[in-house]
Amino acid sequence: MTSRVLVASLLLSPAVLHSQERRYIDPRTPDDTAALPFSAAVLAGNTLYLSGKIGLKADRSVPATPEEEARIVLDDVKSTLQKAGMSMDDLVSVQVFCSDLSYYDAFNRVYRGYFTKAFPARAFIGSGPLLFKARFEVQAIAVRR
What we know:
By secondary structure, this protein is an alpha+beta fold.
């Protein structure tokens, strides 16, 4: 076995993969029956997995415009990243679920302002109705630079 194959085998072994420390951002547990059953994000090694986020106002209502909703949801993504010591530029993959694809341009106008480096890979997916009648739900993965 060559040394490269041996190193790759060791790095990908279940023991090494399971030894990665996890940190939960805004964690929720089964004991908290009043909370929704998911944490805001999970940091495993240098990779942060963000749960889906929607952009509701403080009173849980949908903002009047798609631009306002996009700002709220992207501010929430940014806040979660900051709690993990990351920034929007650490995002490597973003999925945007949208209840109506006619909001594509409105979302993009806001989205562009959140980055200073190359944009992450992204999918913009027509989803049909979203929870609470939101227009957008954003799910993402970030890797610390």
